[in-house]
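Researcher: Quick sanity check before group meeting.
Model: Go ahead. Protein one:
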Amino acid sequence: MFAYLKLPATCSGGHHSIDSNLTINEVRSGLDQILYIKDRRQVQGDNTIGYNTRRYQILPTKTRLGFAKAKVEVQKHLDECIHIFYKGEELPYELIEPQEERRYASSQTESLLVGV
């Protein structure tokens, strides 16, 4: 996992002036767009990826219906949101909510096994 600082192409020598009239929220919003953690994942056969103990379903795009076995880039920004990219194209996705495991009381379990 690596942290990247993506500087605008107009920057020379790595220095960039900041408008002193910007508010803290405007500066933070700008930083959210350029500071992020970059990670790579391989899409599973069911078009899902795992990231930080969560599963995400990658949705079809205009150019491609499925992404099984594709290697994608996951970017986690300062505001904790993630963006998923494939060859420079941002992909739509949905968080897969974990299903609650159904538990039975021991008497219910026994009756299910016996068929009573």
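Researcher: Fine. The other one?
Model: Protein two, sequence then structure:
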Amino acid sequence: MSLSQDAFPPATRNTDPRTSFDAEKNHEQSGRRETHMEMVIRAVKNFPNKTAVEIAELVLLDRHETSRRLADAKNKGLLTASNPRKCSIKGTNMMCWSVG
């Protein structure tokens, strides 16, 4: 399920250290960025209205990687974030994710 019709937007800023650019390049060239995005999209399809932290637990990625891949999918118009509610894991109000 290749979803990369368009290139990903940069994950780094001009002010980031060189190591961040190297990590981004490695993450994309290895295919992990797209694979992880596909994993979170599948989780949202199967378990809609979960928070990023709840999705991270489902896909066995850390919450930061999960949040970044959710943002990638949102930027591609594949997912939306809405309807904040109390996260069952963190106990704080967080956006919930759905397809579309």
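Researcher: One line on it for the slide.
Model: The chain has a mean pLDDT of 88.
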